[in-house]
């Protein structure tokens, strides 16, 4: 199966955050203004002084520091500082002299006035009847107790999606990477309190320059990051920021994951930080070849949790709040040339693989992967996977003194299964071996001619570039 990096429209670049027009803030209780002022005669004709809201003679008024005293009353111009119009309202005699704003004169159409009057009459009639009935029953104006159930305000139970999200979201960051072709984005997960962050290699692979990677924290701060190490073979990378006392997420045991387990994906799809989606583990051991130039072979966890461009490098979290995978690729319909969005098939690197690789990258700056020392024939069709019969481009079919040679595997042999798991394609065998560690033993079911046998192979080590 071929996966696509969910971070770029061209295989490497993120399309960026969607354009969103923010809604202007309004004070609490405010109504939205009409899109156009009603074309009608205002109630108060310009030039006619309105009646004051309260009867009080004009009096000196202190407009506040820097304004000086002013006379406030009908016809005064002091009110112009707080709104247009030739009118000002008289201040109450009991109100202390302060810089209090005056309401603006409102323009209301005749038709609107009639409508308001009708509504007021209807509401008044209904309200009057209801109020009289309530007053007769309880002696005061308040709602009758209908004994409706009330909220218990209970907290979310352990294992609830909201609980998992709340615990994980502060440990997930967004990454902005400046490359030769522009800026791409991705996600990352804090794995150590002293600033180490795990992400995908394809998120940071195109970084150009020492300050090309920026980490956006959940509190809104932005910190420069340095790439500690990366490997294209596993599509993993570790970056570090200058920070302490971070909250890392635990890398759980991905070998304990079973199909049907609930999972939560956290990340920044399309640059939208702190996005949480949920689903289940829909399959295991999916052989995924991700990438276009540097192909990564992933023995992937498949999930239907929505993963979109920008989610790459973010965690796939289980019900205990532990990371069981690093979201890395999404499937697209046949014929699609670029990642367009989730269709319910996302793929994550198992956490056990991520842990081993991250430890190597932190300690040495590079990673290793296991090999058996054979060349596989891509042209072969049939049961199992065949070792090539003849050398290719000066490479031996079976590496001399390599693991397969030591186990007795010969050119032309067919490998039918690894550790009891049948294989029918070359990438299935490759990802199954890559899921192991150098020095591990695997049992291969091999057919040589007409004979089948189980052979034990001790995996050798190769250094990732």
Automatic annotation (TrEMBL):
Keywords: Hydrolase, Membrane, Protease, Transmembrane, Transmembrane helix. It holds the Pfam family Trypsin_2. Residues 398-450 form the PDZ domain. The keyword Protein biosynthesis does not apply. It comes from Paraoerskovia marina. The chain crosses the membrane at residues 110-131. The lineage of its organism: Bacteria, Bacillati, Actinomycetota, Actinomycetes, Micrococcales. GO terms for molecular function: serine-type endopeptidase activity. SMART domains: PDZ (SM00228). This is Putative serine protease PepD. CDD domains: cpPDZ_Deg_HtrA-like. The keyword Manganese does not apply. It comes from the Bacteria. Residues 27-46 have a biased composition (Low complexity). PROSITE patterns: PDZ (PS50106). Residues 1-77 are annotated as: Disordered. PANTHER family: PEPTIDASE S12, PROTEASE DO-LIKE 8, CHLOROPLASTIC. One of its GO terms (biological process) is proteolysis.
């Amino acid at each position: 199966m071929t996966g696509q990096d969910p971070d770029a429209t061209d295989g490497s670049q993120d399309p960026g955050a969607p354009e969103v027009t923010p809604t202007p803030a309004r004070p609490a209780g405010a109504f939205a203004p009409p899109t156009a002022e009603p074309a009608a005669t205002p109630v108060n004709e310009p030039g006619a002084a309105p009646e004051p809201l309260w009867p009080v003679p004009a009096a000196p008024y202190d407009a506040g520091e820097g304004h000086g005293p002013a006379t406030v009353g009908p016809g005064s111009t002091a009110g112009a500082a707080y709104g247009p119009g030739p009118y000002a309202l008289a201040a109450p005699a009991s109100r202390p002299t302060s810089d209090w704003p005056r309401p603006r004169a409102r323009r209301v159409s005749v038709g609107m006035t009639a409508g308001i009057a009708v509504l007021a009459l209807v509401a008044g009639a209904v309200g009057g009847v209801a109020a009289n009935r309530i007053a007769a029953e309880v002696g005061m104006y308040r709602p009758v107790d209908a004994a409706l159930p009330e909220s218990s305000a209970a907290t979310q139970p352990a294992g609830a999606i909201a609980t998992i999200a709340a615990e994980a979201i502060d440990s997930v960051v967004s990454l902005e990477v400046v490359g030769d072709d522009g800026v791409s984005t991705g996600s990352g997960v804090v794995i150590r309190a002293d600033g180490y962050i795990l992400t995908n290699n394809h998120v940071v692979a195109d970084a150009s320059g020492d300050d090309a990677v920026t980490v956006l924290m959940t509190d809104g701060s932005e910190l420069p990051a340095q790439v500690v190490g990366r490997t294209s073979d596993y599509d993993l990378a570790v970056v570090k920021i200058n920070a302490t006392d971070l909250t890392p997420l635990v890398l759980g045991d991905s070998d304990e994951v079973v199909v049907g387990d609930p999972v939560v994906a956290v990340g920044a799809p399309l640059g939208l930080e702190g996005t949480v989606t949920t689903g289940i583990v829909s399959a295991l051991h999916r052989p995924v070849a991700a990438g276009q130039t540097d192909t990564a072979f992933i023995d992937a966890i498949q999930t239907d949790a929505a993963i979109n461009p920008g989610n790459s490098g973010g965690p796939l979290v289980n019900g205990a709040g532990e990371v069981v995978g690093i979201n890395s690729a999404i499937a697209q319909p046949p014929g699609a040339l670029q990642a367009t969005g989730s269709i319910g098939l996302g793929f994550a690197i198992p956490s056990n693989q991520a842990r081993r690789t991250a430890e190597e990258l932190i300690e040495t700056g590079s990673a290793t992967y296991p090999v058996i020392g054979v060349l596989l024939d891509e042209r072969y069709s049939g049961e199992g996977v065949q070792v090539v019969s003849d050398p290719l481009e000066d490479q031996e079919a079976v590496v001399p003194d390599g693991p397969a040679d030591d186990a007795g595997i010969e050119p032309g042999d067919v490998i039918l299964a690894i550790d009891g798991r049948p294989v029918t394609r070359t990438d299935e065998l490759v990802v199954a071996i890559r899921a192991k560690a150098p020095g591990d033993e695997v049992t291969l079911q091999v057919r040589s001619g007409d004979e089948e046998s189980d052979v034990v192979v001790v995996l050798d080590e190769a250094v990732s570039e």
